[in-house]
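User: Predict THNS1 protein's structure from this.
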Amino acid sequence: MFHIFQYRPLRLITQTSLSSVCLKLMLSRPVAFAQIWKSWFSSHSLLGNKNIILMGPPGAGKTTVGRIVGQKLDCPVIDIDDNVLETAWNMSVSEKLQDVGYEEFLEEEGKALLQFSASGSVISLSGSNPMHAAGMQHVKKDGIVVYLDVPTTVIMSRLKSMQVDRIVGLTPGTALRDILQFRKQFYKRWYDIRVFCGEDVAAEVVAEKVLDAVKRYQDSELETFISTRCSRSGRSVEKDSHRYFSDVVIQGLAPDGGLFVPERGLPKFTAGDWQGLIEATYIERAQVILERCIHPADIPASKLAEIIGTAYGENFSCSKVAPVRHLAGNQFLLELFHGPTASFKDFALQLMPHLFAYCIPRSCNYLILVATSGDTGSAVLDGFSRLDDADKQRIAVMNFFPEDGVSPIQKSQMIGCQKENAWSVGVKSDFDFCQTAIKQIFNNSEFTGFLTVEYGTALGAANSINWARLLPQIVYHASAYLDLVHQNIIPFGSPVDICIPTGNFGNILAAFYAKMMGIPIRKCICASNENNVLTDFIRTGVYDLRGRKLISTFSPAVDILKSSNLERYLHLIANEDGQLVTQLFNQLENQGHFQLRKDLLEKLQQDLVAGCCSDEDCLAAIHSVYTTTGYILDTHTAVAKVVADRLQDRTCPIIISSTAHYSKFAPAILRALRIAEINQNPLSQLHLLSSYGALPPIHWGLLETLKKTGNGDHQVCAADMSVLMYHIETLIQSHFM
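Assistant:
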């Protein structure tokens, strides 16, 4: 018998030894034993001595689904309302509620739950059971709690058709919707597994979802990660190459120099799953999507919900978090700049620090190394500085950026975001050097080993090479599509194109992942500035850095020649051929170029199209959009706007990712708006822009940071690996020792 534990921080499932009878049968008649074992496992191993506990609002279908699950497992089914409460009270639940009133009913119901005991059963709770803490603690210790999460509008429709006009808590003057929304906080407190149920999902289908979810909960071995450079024997991978989500968050870069990817791919959502999220908030969408991508053995669902609520709650200035705004014609802007540091990087970097802090061993210190072309630096510094005091003592951040390769406001922001556990270092080189240097430091086992032995400190990565950076970006691409459906712009299932200013390939890869998970994205459009190596590659299949020099443009966040996350995409379209990926990127490193096979280029061009934009066209687009709409694009969004205008066929909506707030690039914006005299003080530039009364308003967080920055200091170093390692060791000595 297997004993399934509610939470397994060490990923261990304890197993008693087989009985002597089973052992003899296994040895003497292996085929017969296998058949018996398979039959037993299919009907009983999901339970053992544990219960499957179905929880959800009235009308969620707990009773019906419970009966089906019980039939499939051939185990007892217990309905708390019918088999426990009404038996104990000798009256119906509705009569009891009418007899004692709301508050007394909850207490009586909780007392009955405390007296209840069962094992190896499927239990359907009442809709109000989760509101009694002691009662829920009692039943939860003996089972796996499955939350049947049904949209509120669907529940209201079901209750109306069932002619239910009274539920616990519904008093005169209280709206049913408000009661149902109020109850959600209690359901979210107790569940181990969420099963999301759309409007027209049959109970049989929900029951299968429950069984699949419980199997997933029990077996985290199915959700492992491999390196993009991992060699396969046939279709198998060496077991010591496997990593779990918690491992890849901590390690960042794979030991062989590749990037981690899910071995079995990302989960697929049905059309019904997505449609059930149309009316959900951004936080609710994030919870549902990320729960399916992060195994509860790594981060329990309740903890993940807490982390997501912290990340996307008060830290974002817009209640919608990532709103979609109509720009003109069939073009829509996905505004990704409402976080504390005014760029799309906040979506990952308000979340990732908390994931990282949860996953790392409590006994070890970690130094996070970051390379930035502009926006990542301040987002990392801000995100890790929001950890609680205990975590800040054991987790520090060092941010390397090209000293002369970011905008003045970006630099001021990175200096202003320095805190007691977060520092910035300017490097006299470009972003590609910073990113390559960090990769080499991670792969320098002598140096990393020295830091561990001498200082008890390990290195971690927060660049988009870290899977935990990439994963949260999937959510806002999915959410943007759902918002268009919710606004009645399109019916669900109609395609959209997405255009993204692209440098390191992470954002556009996240959009492609959203497509793989079931969002109807037709084309992902890659928008380059004058550093158009990606555009050339997508058009020709040749990635060629020979003779290329990085050009400093008005859109510095995409001033990149080596796009790290491209490796993940190529691994995917090459059918996970790690040997080929290794060959391509070794050739790029050693010879400065590689060329895709014709079949892979054809696959790539089915997914991606690309175009590029000059600085002149970028500024012209900012001016044109402002004069016609009163809206100011930032320089990166303007690059995407120019490319979208050139490449879209206008047969479907196109969502342009607005990746940063224009305030961060004030000198270029003022030039685009044809302001003759520009004050060099960043704060003065923002005040000048605010006087235009344009949309969106000046970013609140950026303005506050610049007010605090003044003449803040930061360290500057030469483009030399030994110098960077010296700075790393010095910081470790000062913070952790």
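Residues 1-44 have pLDDT under 50 and may be disordered.
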